[in-house]
Design a protein that fits this description.
The chain has about 375 residues and is mainly beta. It has two domains: about 80 residues, no CATH class; about 200 residues, no CATH class. About 5% of the residues lie in helices and about 35% in strands. The protein is built from two helices and 25 strands. Strands 12, 16, 22, 23 and 25 form a five-stranded antiparallel sheet that branches. A five-stranded mixed sheet has the order 15-24-19-20-21, with no helix packed on it. It is elongated and about 60 Å long.
């Protein structure tokens, strides 16, 4: 154990200090450090480089991983000595505590940034320019690459540059049309998105979907505590079954209507949507849905899509009348929530007869 007294601090400039310490992780600092403003904080005796489970404000530690001295400001560990650079999110050592702090530091482009929301610095893709204040939490099929600026490195399910991927749960990928349930009978499959310390009020999403031989878009499928009946399509929801239908955030309905009254629900959807009015349930969602279906009295093509295709995409058979997958949908939940998010692919019939495929998609969240 090395002991460092305050009189061993040596001022290098108005803002910098140097401390000579033993290279081991455990040392002791005694005394009080005073700043020019006259403010001071006490340095507890026996602080170590290990991350305390319950740190207190003013605690000092040596971080052997980042090779720097840090102090705990009551919320997060801040760099105390070892770098004169201002936090700007460019490295873990320069992590900021909010998206606003990125703007304050002069960052203006979509890209990967380090942010410490909850005491742990993580790397996030933050679309500062294209979707201000939002943060990427879900990315399937290279949706970030297609939908966001400066995101070409985020292919597949990547969330950042350090190996974190968006889960695909128990989905299957057929390699052409994307992720789907791959199950027999009336069922649903889902993947859970970890919000990684973010508390969010706003959820924003964009999905390119294919639908296969579905002629009844809404037909009473219940899942994960939602009990009011959802049929064929894909839903984003909070992971909080205790509140039932209130978990719901947004649903993409999909159907190839055959005029049997089971097409899109009769409720007014979020624009844009191609609506063939039916009598099926779904009113608990209010306007938080879009619906795409092929106009006609019967279906003859296997697939229908809800987006303008990119080069290399399957044409998807006969297209719907409105491309709901080319639109961004933004939902205001009213207050901040901490729960993880589910992406659910659901259907009311065997996958050999009908299913919805996620070709690509992204989910963004934003705190209040």
């Amino acid at each position: 154990m090395s002991t460092i007294r305050v009189d061993e601090l040596r001022a290098l400039s108005d803002n910098d200090f140097s401390i000579n310490v033993s290279p081991n992780d455990n040392f002791e600092i005694q005394g009080t450090i005073e700043f020019d403003s006259g403010a001071s904080f006490s340095v507890p005796v026996g602080t170590s480089a290990e991350r305390p489970a319950a740190p207190t404000g003013g605690m000092l530690r040596y971080n052997s991983t980042l090779e720097r001295l840090e102090f705990y400001d009551g919320t997060v560990w801040q760099n105390f000595i070892g770098s004169s650079a201002a936090p700007n999110g460019s490295t873990e050592a320069l992590a900021v505590t909010s998206v606003q702090a990125l703007y304050d530091a002069g960052q203006v482009t979509d890209g990967l940034y380090w942010i410490n929301f909850d005491g742990t610095a993580r790397q996030y893709f933050v679309p500062l320019n294209s979707h201000p204040y939002y943060i990427l939490v879900g990315n399937w099929g290279g949706g970030a690459d297609k939908f966001l600026q400066n995101a070409s490195s985020l292919s597949g399910n990547q969330l950042n540059g350090v190996g974190d991927n968006t889960p695909t749960g128990n989905w299957t990928n057929n390699g052409t049309y994307g992720y789907y349930r791959n199950t027999g009978g009336s069922d649903f499959k889902y993947a859970t998105m970890d919000v990684r310390g973010i508390q969010y009020r706003y959820v924003k999403m964009k999905f390119n979907l294919y639908n296969y031989h579905s002629n009844d878009g809404v037909n009473g499928r219940n899942f994960l505590g939602i009990t009011s009946g959802v049929g064929d399509g894909m839903t984003i929801m909070r992971d909080n079954s205790a509140v039932g239908d209130a978990q719901h955030i947004f649903t993409y309905y999909s159907a190839i209507s055959n005029n049997d009254g089971n097409g899109c629900p009769s409720a007014t959807p979020t624009f844009p949507s191609h609506v063939r009015v039916g009598t099926n349930p779904g009113g608990f969602m209010g306007s938080r849905f879009c619906c795409f279906s092929r106009e006609g009295s019967s279906y003859g093509a296997e697939y229908v899509r809800n987006f303008t295709p990119y080069a290399g995409d399957s044409s998807g058979g006969t297209v719907p009348n409105a491309f709901t997958g080319d639109a961004w949908y933004e939902i205001d939940l009213g207050i901040n929530y901490p729960q993880n998010l589910h992406c659910v692919i659901h259907s009311d019939q065997d996958s050999g007869n009908e299913d919805t495929y996620i070709k690509r998609g992204v989910v963004l969240v934003r705190p209040a």
